[in-house]
Design a protein that fits this description.
mainly alpha; single chain; about 70% helix; about 100 residues
Length: about 100
């Protein structure tokens, strides 16, 4: 059952997903306002957006009925979100940051 992989409503993990969603969305909108919509074309921001969607859907999941299509979308994004976040982390911290 897909719903069982998501946090229970109002649990600590649910609050984490909600807070991460809100904070990441604020950072994204602030960056868009400062740098413009062109930043969405970068791999880093696309990874960030995927994580925002995952956190938002995970926070929403306990309130959705079983077999809802958004639960399927959330599961579909699980690996790509993890992979892009990991690649971005290692790229920035082990390739770009040492050069700066």
């Amino acid at each position: 059952e897909i719903l069982s992989t998501h946090p229970m409503e109002y649990s600590a993990f649910w609050i984490y997903n909600l807070m991460a969603f809100v904070w990441m969305k604020i950072v994204l909108f602030s960056s868009l306002r400062k740098r413009g919509p062109g930043i969405v074309l970068t791999y880093t921001i696309q990874s960030w957006i995927m994580l925002i969607i995952r956190h938002g859907l995970s926070a929403l999941a306990p309130f959705l009925p079983n077999k809802h299509f958004l639960l399927w979308v959330n599961e579909l994004l699980r690996f790509p979100a993890l992979a892009t976040a990991s690649i971005t982390f290692f790229y920035w911290n082990f390739i770009i940051a040492p050069v700066i």
